[in-house]
Amino acid sequence: MVHSNGVPDAVGSQPQYDVFADEFLEHARDGLYNAHYDRPACLELLGDVSGRVVLDAACGPGLYAKELVTRGATVIGLDQSPRMIELARQREPMGRFRVHDLADRLDWLPDGSVDLVLFALALEYVDDRTAALRELRRVLRPDGALVLSRMHPTGDWLRQGGNYFDVRVIEEVWNKGWRVRYWLAPLERTCEELHEAGFLIERLLEPRPKPQAAEISQATYERLTSEPSGFLAIRAVPDPRR
């Protein structure tokens, strides 16, 4: 199916980040958006991870995994990109990493086998998000939690225009020349997908960057501390009634 904007209504299973995985690692290691904005928010929502088993879904080059292991967690990481998995293994040898597409079942993980799931900045690259979230719920222990971050839908809409409530695929070339395809969706849709997958939303953060971010870019720091133009983060728990 093709949307009215001419873009097919699917992101597909092509590992988009594979072609610029090494550049992404360099960008995200100490970059404003990742190191001083998204990672602190996600780590706050995860809480104390010491002695916990954490599934790092869409783990990328292992930046979150490294921090989680440092904080005492046992980390299982997966990513669609083979190169990202290579980088993650190099960065954190204590983690267990494997190539996996979230379009497929996590048939190598038993029910209730992890304490926490981290799903950072990757929800928008999954076509059947409810099915993927349902699988993440399946592998979570009943008292576990899912922490996900995504691009802020208001910021997306301000940048892209059109109907805010129109769920659609966007194609962009980012400023480093990275070509990406991802789903644009309102906050309501993400909340409904979590509900359909059997989660209850416990907390929602619209994070502000850490003060160190101002040393990288004062203008970006000021924008992200005053406008809904960056990311948001959610902590959700399994609904015991379902």
The CATH topology comes to Rossmann fold
Q: Helix content range of the residues, please?
A: 25-40%
Q: What is the count of β-strands? A: 9
* CATH architecture assignment name: 3-Layer(aba) Sandwich
Counted up, domains total 1
> Kindly, what is the distance between the CA atoms of the first and last residues, rounded to a whole number of angstroms?
33 Å
Question: Averaged pLDDT, please?
Answer: 94
Low-confidence stretches: 1-7
- Order of strands side by side in the largest beta sheet? 3-2-1-4-5-9-8
Instruction: Note the main sheet.
Output: 7 strands, mixed
Highest-level CATH class = Alpha Beta
GO molecular function: methyltransferase activity
Keywords: Methyltransferase, Transferase
Pfam family, one: Methyltransf_11
Domain Methyltransferase type: 55-148
Secondary-structure topology with pairs:
Layout: H1 21-30, H2 32-46, E1 53-57, H3 63-70, E2 74-79, H4 82-91, E3 96-99, E4 114-120, H5 129-139, E5 140-151, H6 153-160, E6 168-173, E7 179-184, H7 187-196, E8 199-205, H8 213-216, H9 218-224, E9 231-238
Helix pairs in contact: 1-2
Features of this protein?
7-stranded mixed sheet, two-stranded antiparallel sheet, 34% helix, globular, transferase, 9 strands, 9 helices
Written description of the protein model:
Residues 55-148 form the Methyltransferase type domain. One of its GO terms (biological process) is methylation. This is Class I SAM-dependent methyltransferase. Keywords: Methyltransferase, Transferase. With 242 residues, this protein is an alpha/beta fold. The chain has a single domain, classed as Vaccinia Virus protein VP39 (Rossmann fold, 3-Layer(aba) Sandwich), CATH 3.40.50.150. The chain has nine helices and nine strands. The chain has helices spanning 21-30, 32-46, 63-70, 82-91, 129-139, 153-160, 187-196, 213-216, 218-224, and strands at residues 53-57, 74-79, 96-99, 114-120, 140-151, 168-173, 179-184, 199-205, 231-238. The strands form two sheets. A seven-stranded mixed sheet has the order 3-2-1-4-5-9-8, sandwiched between helices. The protein has a two-stranded antiparallel sheet with strand order 6-7. Helix 1 crosses helix 2. The protein starts with 20 loop residues before the first helix and ends with a strand. Residues 1-7 have low confidence and may be disordered.
